[in-house]
Structure formats: C-alpha cells, structure tokens
Amino acid sequence: MRELTHFIGGKHVKGTSGRFTEGYQPMTGEIISKVPLASKAETRAAVENALAAQPAWAATNPQRRARVLMKFLELVARDNDKIADVIAREHGKTIIDAKGDIQRGIEVIEFCVGAPHLMKGEYTEGAGPGIDIYSLRQPLGVVAGITPFNFPAMIPMWKFGPAIACGNAFVLKPSERDVGAPLLFAELMIEAGLPPGILNVVNGDKEAVDALLDDGDVRAIGFVGSTAIAEYVYARGTANGKRVQCFGGAKNHMVIMPDADMDQAVDALIGAGYGSAGERCMAISVVVPVGEQTADELVKRLVPRVESLKIGPSTDASADFGPLVTAQALERVRGYVDLGIKEGATLAVDGRGFKMQGYENGFYLGGCLFDNVTKDMRIYKEEIFGPVLSIVRAKKYEEALALCNDHEYGNGVAIFTRDGDAARDFAARVQVGMVGVNVPIPVPLAYYTFGGWKRSVFGDLNQHGPDSIRFYTKTKTVTSRWPSGTKEGAEFSIPTMK
Questions:
Q1: How many independent structural domains does the chain possess?
Q2: Which end of the chain is more exposed for a tag (fewer CB within 10 A), N or C?
Q3: Would you give the DSSP letter of residue 22?
C-alpha cells in the first residue's frame, strides 16, 4: 500500500497531520493507498507558497504563460495511457472513459492557450477633451478549486487551466478518493516550465476545505460536487468576501416525442444513462416519453438493452461501465433501488444481484431501470448518481415540459424529436441551463461556458469558455487626461461629458 503526498512549492510533500484516509481500487475492493488529510497549517503552507510565487507569474507576459500550457498539453499526450490507468484504478471507470475524462480537460487547456487574446481590455481615445479611457484585465492573486471524484482529470483542468493562464496561483483540493491524476498534473506542469508554487495540490477533507474558505489570501473558490456542499461552500466563501462559483447536483431529463427516432433515442439513453456507472452530473437519469404508445415502445426496446449491458473491471476494454467508486456509493445506490420499489415504481430491470466473477469484492451494480415513476417519489426528486434510469410517463408535451421546469435542479436536459417546431419551442421555454436537441449529454465545447440553473449552481459565472476568464480576473478601468492648456480650477460635481 502506497502512502501518497501533497504537492506544495513544486515538490511532493509528506502529510504531517497524522490523519489519513484509505484509497480503494473499486474493481477489486482492495485498499491501494493511504491519502494524507491536510491540517489547517498544511493548507496554509500551500497558500503561502502560492502567494509568494504569484506576483512574478502575473508579471510574466500572457503569451509566455500560454506556452507553458502548450508544453503541458504535449506532456499529457505523452503520458495519456499512464494517467488513464491511474484514473481507472482509483475511480473505477473504464480506460476508454478515463481517456474521455482527460480529453475534455485537454480541450479547456487548449482554449486557455488563447488567453492572451481573451484578456485584452478596451480602449477609447478622445472620450472627452484630452481624455482617454481604457480597461485592463488583471489576475485575482491566489485562487483555489475543490473538485469531485467523478472527473479527477477533467474538472481540475477546467479549474486550474484558466486560472493559471490568467496569471493567478492555484491551490487544488481534489477529492480524496482519487488523487493520482491531480498529482500527476502538478508534476507535468512543473516539467512544462510552470514556476514552483503556482499549482499546489492539497489532499484533505472538510478541514482543508474550511481552511481555504476562511483564508483571507484566497481570493476566489471554484467548487463542483453535491448541492448541499455547494450551497455550504458558496455561503461560507462569499461571507468571507471571496468570489465563488459552485456547481451542484442534477436530475437531467430526456423527453422523447412520439415522432422521435426510437433506435437513436434508445442508443442515446444507454450511453447517457449508464456510462461511467451513472456517476456523471450530466447523466440522463429521467426519461420522459410523451404518450402511452411512445412509452410502451421505449420500454419494449430499452429493457433488453439494459439487461445486456456489459459490466466489467476498469481494465476491460469491452466493458460498458465498471464499478462504482466506493462501497458506500454502492450501498447508497442500492438503497435508492430498494426505496423505489417501496414507493411503488415498477423495477423493470434489477441489477442489484450482479456479481463480477473473479472480482466479488468490487463495487459493482448492474443496470437498473424503473418504469411508472411519479414526480412525488424520492427516486425522482433526488440525485441517485448510479446506473439507475427512471421512466416518467407524460400524456402530452406540455406535461413533459413542466416536469423539466418544475424540478429543483436545472443542469442539463434533452429532447429527441424530428419536429423542428417542437425542438425550437422546447429550447426556448425549458428552464434548464444546458439543452440538447437529439443530443443526450449537452456538454458545451470548451469555447462555450458550462453551467446549469436553479439549485444546480450557486454563483453568477460558469465554468470554462469566456466566463472562466471573467471569473479569474478583475477589471480595472483607467481614465487619463494629459492637459495641454491652462488650469481651469477645481470642479466639485461628478465628471461628465458636457
């Protein structure tokens, strides 16, 4: 069993708090590592390293900062297989899924290479008599990110990429369940030429999180996780005067209209509902067929597909998905399946009895499918975060739209239809932040912003895209005058353009 480290000031640092958590390999259930849990003092050491290094990095011209990110991309490509293997063994997702995790992070780093253009300000010559006005985008200073277990590569890159490109120093607190990829990224950034202290990784639990939230030298916090913790981080961070963006839970619906291509819709549901064992904030967890005939046809086609899903160890290239991340996650999801039966939903496919031969101690659950779910059930209201799909039947389009709009979460949504009018109306009226039309997981590309609505998000600016540059910079506006005539005397009113 390997004892892992923090990464502070450009090097690996052993934990000194005396507190550890165990890191598991989900496909076997074995303990494979000891992860140190940082104390307040260790967290402060990371902030102090960042604070000391940041001014020189901010003074480095944006193009040179971008070149470090370009080199980082080369190194990630070189070590792609190694990083994917670490993710698969620590998280449980398949190798191909782990590579997708890395790729979506890479795309944001590629976007961040363009930060020199994105950070340009504005200039107005002759705004008044002898007066010029211009604006600057400047880094905030030391910023931090608190990232989840389900995307140990993508979300850290979404956070530290734009922050570092803009001239900030970054303290990353990844999920303690799978810290391997973030530690590798910190090493690769140093190899790419990033000065020590600009990217620090502190492993920890609530003590480290609270230390970052309360530290007066941390100017901004980005968070991804559950809604309850997102709300806590947002409230505590903003109370301490920080800029905060928090992304929480989801219950993503997919509406299937009577005219939809049912083969396409079923294929989409299988991937979007069960990929990565459902441990995605953008997973489709509710499907809403419109009309009984549509619902019956969907169930007829969906049941055998769910029953034939191939669950396997993370190293099996032919597996559709692997185990859940921990034994606790497995029990939680099984508990929701038990609850759905008690609430009166029809369990059309029951994956609770699945056992992986040769991996009996792994955290596996087969695909589960509920039919006749109603909006008053907890399995509909709450995020399950597992390979469980619920069918909620709607009689009409307006009822399906209302289900999406009335839910407390508003992260992602999709509609499958051949009708352009229906798709256009849905996209205009649905109260959800990211919408797919015949696209089941509508995650925008890196040059657009990612973010939901309602209780899926706390804060005003989204992740990646132009919003990320706005979040990690502050705008300064300069009004200058170079007098060429005689002094006209004091003015006591607010300056205006007469």
A1: 2
A2: C
A3: E
